[in-house]
Amino acid sequence: MEKPKNCIIVIFGASGDLTHRKLIPALYELYRKDLLPERFGVLGVSRTRLTDTSFRKQLAASLKEYTANDSTDTKQIKKFLKRIYYLAIDTSNAGDYQKLKSRLKKLDKEYQTHGAFIYYLSIAPSMYEVIVENLGLHGLQESQWREGYDKRIIVEKPFGYDLESGRSLNKKLLKVFREPQVYRIDHYLGKETVQNILVFRFSNGIFEPLWNRNYISHVEITAAETVGIEKRGKYYDQSGALRDMVQSHLMQILGVIAMEPPSTFESSAVRNEIVKVFHSLPAIHPNEVANFAVRGQYTKSKIQGEIIPGYRDEEHVDPFSRTETYIALKVFIENWRWGGVPFYIRTGKRLPTRVTEVVIHFKSTPHILFKQKDQHHTEPNQLILRIQPDEGILLNFGMKLPGAGFQVKKVSMDFHYSDLGDIPVPQAYERLLLDCMMGDSTLFARGDAVEACWGFVDPILREWQENPDDTIFGYPAGTWGPRQANLLFGVPGLDWHYPCKNLVEDALFCEL
Ligand SMILES: NC(=O)c1ccc[n+]([C@@H]2O[C@H](COP(=O)([O-])OP(=O)(O)OC[C@H]3O[C@@H](n4cnc5c(N)ncnc54)[C@H](OP(=O)(O)O)[C@@H]3O)[C@@H](O)[C@H]2O)c1
After folding, report:
1. Is the domain of 179 the same as that of 216?
2. Among 138, 433, 460, 483, which residue's Cβ finds the most Cβ atoms within 10 Å?
3. Higher pLDDT among residues 179 and 368, named by residue
4. Is the dihedral of CA 16, 20, 26, 31 positive or negative?
5. In angstroms, what is the span from residue 178 Cα to ligand 1's centroid?
6. E strand or H helix at 60, and its extent?
7. pTM of this structure
8. 129 membership: H or E segment, kind and range
């Protein structure tokens, strides 16, 4: 495989959680697999007083903790860490960028990177604009225009707080960098299983003809988490599930599921098709929000003898908070392919199991031949694309039960990634860091797509903000969220796909 050109990765937020838990382990894995360029270096930047040596020592410990055991070869780690450097500066202080500039000049010479720097904003979003501005002020965004040696910037989500701040961030980024230099990372797009949706759809002849309103009745996209908000109360209480999960990750999955086939697998061709999906989402009218969105918040419960605190009892959460930890949405895509097909999207914390999946529900047969004993009809086919865990694809269909009569039973054909044997599935950050080094932005969110996603969720956020008394439903931790979410289907008998049962019996649901 072709390797990227020499480069230096500058990580802003080097002493932080993401750097230690994801970025350095991902870079190490790439190094171990010999996928990095001959000459590449990393410069970590944050305020904590550290030297190159003390930073490397900390990273060595993190690598032991966060990489697979079979990849912790001490000698190799040492060689890798020799390429990592540290600079203590305050990134809100414009004067400090002179230090950054001179350090980069030295590293550029040593690594022969011809000015190819990748700036990674692994720092609080409130710092994004000031860093970008200061990089611009010091000419640190200017490329030398040598083929393949470009300056790039990777921005972590959240890309703004609402439509207005999302637009403002884009504006500030594009005042300093050109759009092709900007890589907005959504690690869901870096997941093998999300990329596999593209391969599944566009490399198999048999599914694409069925992938439309004529054969599909509805689609579900679920991202369920068993954890609560952990130590992120301060962030989460200002954010909520709609901003944290839907605006970014789940909308990207929706884009990949619903897009038209691109004419080539070029970045702009793929991203043009994805953004068209977002532009086809009708804005929800404020009076209609309750008909299309159900929000919930987990309440205290007892799971297998253990007391699970309610959201309002979590650290740094307002005891009267109306922030949603669960959201279910009904979405229509107004275009030729999907006209009239509802897409149901739900995500929540403290649900009974951790699962991210897409369930495609096909229409029933036009005529029912095999009447079942207790049902009016046989179950329609379902295709389940399991994104995590137990990544794979499952097709449900009806088979005859052996014996007298024509009893139909639902069975499945399934593929699990684990069936591929010992081919390791790379972490999302590995894939995305390598793609950025190669200058391939296909799996990154483009500015117009981010704004289009904000454009869709913004009316819902505004409605809740302007009417704080709008209903929010309590659901006991360990259940599948408020029962009112089922009403979104509006068809008797239709319900969500539940990969497992509630963990709590006799749960008490209430309005908060
Ligand atoms: N952690 C995750 O799993 C995760 C997942 C998805 C997205 N993200 C996003 O990634 C970003 C980083 O998250 P994180 O969890 O790593 O945050 P974090 O642990 O709080 O780290 C923040 C980093 O920023 C540095 N910093 C803060 N103010 C600074 C300043 N004025 N000058 C220089 N450095 C400064 C801090 O170092 P000093 O205190 O030493 O200066 C620290 O290294 C956030 O935007 C977050 O939303 C994180």
Report:
1. no
2. 433
3. 179
4. positive
5. 24
6. helix 52-66
7. 0.93
8. helix 128-137
